[in-house]
Every structure is written in structure tokens, then in C-alpha cells.
Design goal:
Elements lengths: L9 E5 L4 H12 L3 E6 L2 H10 L6 E6 L5 H15 L2 E6 L14 H28 L5 E5 L16 H21 L5 E5 L29 H13 L4 E2 L3 E2 L2 H10 L10 E2 L5 H15 L4 E4 L14 H28 L5 E5 L16 H21 L5 E7 L2 E2 L2 H13 L6 E2 H13 L8 E6 L5
Parallel strand pairs: 1-2, 1-4, 2-3, 4-5, 5-6, 8-9, 10-11, 11-12, 12-15, 13-14
Antiparallel strand pairs: 7-15
Helix pairs in contact: 1-6, 3-4, 4-5, 8-9, 9-10
The structure holds NADP nicotinamide-adenine-dinucleotide phosphate (NAP).
């Protein structure tokens, strides 16, 4: 992970006085970035700046109450005048003073909405104006939350999820505006689960803390590391072997023979249950227990639903859904038997979350939507069974592989001829990052797109 392209450039981080923001500004300054940290308690940011005074980059404190529009505008003006144009904005500040909908306090509702939605949008507008004026290949990161994707049943936590759902929608609307305007700016939403910061402490009296919070959570540094990873992806990447043709895997193995690990080819057709079972048996007998399974194999022969070819439908479902589920079952049986802290990665697709507009691909999105649901059902089974196994869905947009040629033929290749695509390396790097996270951190879903594209 390297932030080389941002060394000496300006990053704005809101909510830099505590929690995630504090860890993030430390990480960025250590990487050589010039950071403008915003918060009401700016004296705390001054203290952090002191701690960091011998590091490669520099932290500058800006006192700003994000519920006040004029203060935000004046602060951004001051930042660009004193530090220069903005390359990174991390909208991290957020809060959730305890309040309910039935009998809640309107001033708290307004504070949550003003900080989590409006301030985020104003900061984004100001940062984009600076990036646009200076033709900067910038990056905007919204610190969202799992509460931005699912409602949580917590007392006093009724307004916050609505603000984070809004952040989810704002991220995607902004992505579309940026693409329509051809701006070279990336947008990423990072959605942590429970993080051990002052967030909930300031929300509840310590005696009222819900049981949910008694378990250990992520550390603020884990989220900061995730943001650093997202920022470190190459300019064109936006931060989301078993084979039938075994001779090709053998060729890769030969090329890799001087590496630290080794690659062992296993011939297996994933549409044949018995072949999968025999292959897993052979893998375990010859190589030992399994620690990682990457369910990467997938097909999408061109077919329609109205008058499609049933054989093709079956091939897609058998490979992408049933093959994946059998491999997962076999890997988990082995991880369980050996008490392995394993990791399963499903290579999903952006079409596992949206449908897109691809005339040749009517069944494929169905199979990938199934992978999205299977990932989450498996997560629940794993948690219910207390297994120390991680499960992650990685959803790439279009990738430059043989996929179009193999599945869609010459016409398909032509269709993608002038479309910018991710490289296979980009996706491999994403999976390596997911696997490299510390034991207690689980990336649930990581969508990776080519910058400027939706699919
Ligand atoms: N902790 C979690 O479990 C969790 C989980 C998922 C997502 N998140 C999200 O992560 C982000 C950071 O939260 P955290 O856990 O690090 O919380 P935290 O430790 O309570 O820090 C919140 C930060 O927001 C700043 N802030 C709040 N209101 C502000 C205002 N009006 N003007 C300027 N700054 C303001 C605070 O600074 P001052 O008070 O000094 O102004 C502080 O620096 C939030 O967006 C939160 O929604 C947290």
C-alpha cells in the first residue's frame, strides 16, 4: 500500500479530534500527506499535530462547527488559501446523540442530520470545486456505517441510520454526477461495523450502554487502515487454481516456481459435483488443511430469458452458484475440523448488486445476486456456529480478461472494445488486500470499479 501519488498534497479530514478521524490523520501524515483536520475541539488536533511534528507530512488544525454552513465555507476558503488545492476529502465527522422518533428531541434530530448529511454534502461540494479548478485526480471518502445498509435495533438510535442510508444514496448520486461531468475524481463509501471510539460513550450514559456494545469492536486504526488502502489504489481503480484447463494452471505454476509459495494444478469441472468432492479430497490429502478459498470461477455464456437456451442457464447456475456453494461447504468442513482461522472470498460482480443494461447477460446477474445473498446467509451460519472463518464478497466492474471472448464471442469482444476495463491484477490486488487484513477485521463487501464507470 502506498500513498506516493498524494505525498505533499492536501487532504481534508473532518472530525479529526477523536476516534477514527484521529487515527486517520496520523496515518496520512506518516505517509507524507499535508492534512487539514477539522473539528470543534481544534485544540485536540493541535495536540496531535505536536505528536506528529517529526513525521513526513504535516497536520494543520482548523476549528469548525460543521452544523454552521458559513463556518464550513470560510474553513474551506482558508484551507485552499493557506495549504493549496485539495486532493483528498474524508467526510468522517458524524454523531448520534441518543434520540427516538416517537418522543424525540427535535434539536438532536437537526444536529444529526445537519452533521451527517448536510455538512458532508457541503464539504464535498467545496472540495470538488477545488479539485475541478485545479484539474486534480482527487478522492472523496465518506465514512458511512453498516447502519447505512441495514436498520439496527438499538434504543436511541432511530435517526442515525436514516442519515447513513442518505450517505449511501449520496455516494451513488455523486458518482453519477462525477461520471456525467467526466471528472477524474473517485468516490468511495467505507462502512464500518461497531468501532471502539467515544461515539457511543458520548451517546449514552455509561450505565445505559446497550449489551450490543459490551463485545469488542473494531479499533479506530482498523478503519483508518481501510481508508489508507482505498486511497492507495491505482488512479484507474476505484475502491470494489482450480480449472478445467489444468495445463494452463501448470504453465502458471512453472512461471512461479522460484516464488515463496507454490501453485499446484487440479483438473476439475465445477459443474460436476463428484469432481469437486474428489478434488477437495485430493487437495487435502496432498497439500494439507485449507486456509483460504477464493471462489473465482464463473461463466456467462450469452443467453436470454424469453427464448434462452436451458443448457446455458444450467451451466451458469451450476458453476456460479452450486459449484461455489459446494467448494465453500468442503473448505469449511476442513477448516472446522482443523480449527482453522480461514477466509472465504467470493468473487462476485457489480452485477450481483445491480442489473445494468447488457442484452447478452440475462441470467448472469441472477447468479451473482445469488452470490450476494449466499455470502450474507453464510456469514450468519458462521456466526451462529462461532466459527473463526471470514467471508468476503469482492465485486469487480468490467475486467479485461478472456471473459467477453469466451462467453460472448466476437460480437461481445467488439462491444467492449472501447470500454475502459480493470486489469485482472487490479482485482487480484484487491483480494490480496482483503486477505491481508488483521484477524479481527472482516471486509464484508468490497466493490471495485474502473474510475469513471458504473459497471
Ligand atoms: N464508532 C462506531 O461504532 C462507528 C461505526 C460506523 C461508522 N461510524 C462513523 O465514523 C465516523 C467517526 O466516528 P467515531 O466513531 O470516530 O466517533 P467519535 O470518536 O465520537 O468522533 C466524532 C468526530 O466527529 C466530530 N464532530 C461531531 N460533530 C461535529 C461538528 N458539529 N463539527 C465538527 N466536528 C464534529 C468530533 O469532533 P468535535 O467534537 O471535536 O467537534 C469528532 O472528531 C462517524 O461518521 C460515524 O458515524 C462510527
Amino acid at each position: 500500500m502506498s500513498l506516493e501519488r498524494f505525498v505533499g498534497k492536501v487532504a481534508v479530514v473532518t472530525g479529526a479530534s477523536a476516534g477514527i478521524g484521529r487515527e486517520l490523520v496520523k496515518a496520512l501524515v506518516k505517509e507524507g500527506v499535508t492534512v487539514a483536520g477539522l473539528a470543534r475541539r481544534s485544540e485536540r488536533i493541535e495536540e496531535i499535530a505536536q505528536e506528529l511534528k517529526n513525521e513526513k507530512g504535516k497536520l494543520h488544525a482548523f476549528k469548525c462547527d460543521l452544523t454552521k454552513d458559513e463556518e464550513i465555507l470560510a474553513t474551506f476558503k482558508k484551507i485552499t488559501e493557506t495549504l493549496g488545492p485539495i486532493s483528498i476529502l474524508v467526510n468522517n465527522a458524524g454523531l448520534s446523540p441518543a434520540t427516538e422518533l416517537i418522543d424525540g428531541d427535535i434539536s438532536k434530530w437537526r444536529q444529526i442530520i445537519d452533521t451527517n448529511i448536510l455538512a458532508l454534502s457541503i464539504c464535498t461540494r467545496e472540495a470538488i470545486a477545488s479539485m475541478k479548478a485545479n484539474n486534480i485526480k482527487g478522492h472523496i471518502v465518506h465514512i458511512n456505517s453498516i447502519a447505512g445498509h441495514m436498520p439496527l435495533d438499538l434504543v436511541g438510535f432511530s435517526v442515525y441510520p436514516a442519515t447513513k442510508y442518505a450517505v449511501t444514496a449520496l455516494t451513488e448520486s455523486l458518482r453519477r454526477e462525477i461520471n456525467r461531468n467526466g471528472l477524474p475524481i473517485k468516490v468511495t463509501s467505507v462502512s464500518p461495523g461497531y468501532v471502539e471510539t467515544d461515539f457511543f460513550v458520548s451517546m449514552y450514559d455509561s450505565k445505559d450502554l446497550p449489551a450490543y456494545l459490551e463485545r469488542s469492536g473494531l479499533k479506530a486504526k482498523d478503519v483508518a487502515d481501510t481508508v489508507v488502502y482505498v486511497l492507495s489504489t491505482p488512479e484507474h481503480v476505484n475502491v470494489a487454481g482450480i480449472s478445467r484447463r489444468v495445463e494452463r494452471v501448470q504453465e502458471h505454476a512453472n512461471q512461479l516456481k522460484n516464488g515463496n509459495g507454490s501453485l499446484h494444478p487440479f483438473k476439475c469441472d465445477l459443474t460436476k459435483d463428484k469432481e469437486i468432492l474428489d478434488t477437495f479430497k485430493k487437495i487435502i490429502e496432498t497439500l494439507g488443511p485449507i486456509h483460504i478459498l477464493v471462489n473465482n470461477a464463473g461463466v456467462a455464456p450469452a443467453t436470454a430469458l424469453i427464448d434462452g437456451d436451458i443448457k446455458r442457464w444450467r451451466q451458469i447456475i451450476d458453476t456460479n452458484v452450486i459449484g461455489l456453494s459446494i467448494c465453500t461447504r468442503e473448505a469449511i468442513a476442513n477448516m472446522k475440523a482443523n480449527n482453522t482461522k480461514g477466509h472465504i472470498v467470493h468473487v462476485n460482480s457489480v452485477l450481483g448488486h445491480e442489473i445494468g443494461e447488457f442484452p447478452y447477460l440475462s441470467v448472469y446477474p441472477g447468479s451473482k445476486h445469488a452470490v450476494t445473498a449466499l455470502t450474507e446467509c453464510l456469514r450468519r451460519e458462521i456466526n451462529r456456529n462461532n466459527l473463526p472463518i471470514k467471508i468476503t464478497s469482492v465485486s469487480p466492474g468490467g475486467v479485461s480478461t478472456e471473459f467477453a471472448e469466451v462467453n460472448l464471442g466476437a460480437e461481445g469482444v467488439k462491444r467492449f472494445e472501447n470500454v475502459p476495463l480493470l486489469s485482472a491484477d487490479d482485482v487480484a490486488d484487491t483480494i490480496v488486500y482483503v486477505l491481508s487484513t488483521p484477524e479481527h477485521v472482516n471486509i464484508r463487501e468490497l466493490t471495485v470499479n474502473i474510475q469513471g464507470q458504473l459497471y
